[in-house]
Amino acid sequence: MPSETAVTAREALHPDAGTVEKRLLDGIRSLVGDRTAYVCFSGGVDSTVLLAACLRSGAKTVALLGVSPSLPEAERLHSHALAAELGAAVEEIETHEMDNPSYRANSGDRCYHCKATLFETVQDFARQRKEMGVVLVGTHTGDLGEHRPGLRAAAERNVAAPLVDAGMDKNDVRALARQWKLSNAEKAAAPCLASRLPVGVQVSPERLAQIETVENFLRENGVWPARARWHEAVVRLEIAPDLFPTALAEPFRTQLHAVCRKAGFTFVALDIAGLQSGSLALPLLHA
Q1: Of 60, 72, 169, 233, which residue has the fewest beta carbons closer than 10 angstroms?
Q2: What CATH number does the domain located at 4-179 have?
């Protein structure tokens, strides 16, 4: 029979959902107190769990959705629907990161400038409301070892990450989302549209619109999740290999080609590697 110490150590490494929930809610109550929790909400499972946790903790909570050309319209609408399921209203804030030349340059630190603009816009929003508060973001422990310049922007602006404080990784987040019966518990990651541009290629509203047009067509026809990677005249499509037959079957193949051409691409390529996270940052990661 294992010792009490061994059991405690095992639970620390693999806590059950009840333990994780208590740790998260207690942490939010301690962090926020009688102030307002300003949640940076994107509609992803991480920020949805964070928003749900703030509401469950009893904290006064405001969900804020950063809106710019890099946010797909489908994701904007989905975010509102998710928040409504939780009984929360979402305030949209225009972030205007496109006005920043360093963001547009897309030099490998684009996410830093994007998140810096988001957090500063949220902080300005809070000041205008004249309500003391804490800005919260849905970062979890699994994000900490990745190439995420946005983490530096958060640290510099004292943005709190309750999921990290509770020791939660992605598995913990999804487990809690399932326990709370959140409708997006299994939702795949949905990075911003600017992530489809290779490092060093300038971000522009026109290029983001090209990408969104193609991805909207794929999404609406059930070929999802997917990425439309921008390579000047070529759009490189990343989808799960089990969806290859659907993408190549007629009449969908011809329709997809026509949509890509209308969006401004000359050639359409299907990446046989399938769906890849951060594939356009690979040269940066392996430099």
Answers
A1: 233
A2: 3.40.50.620
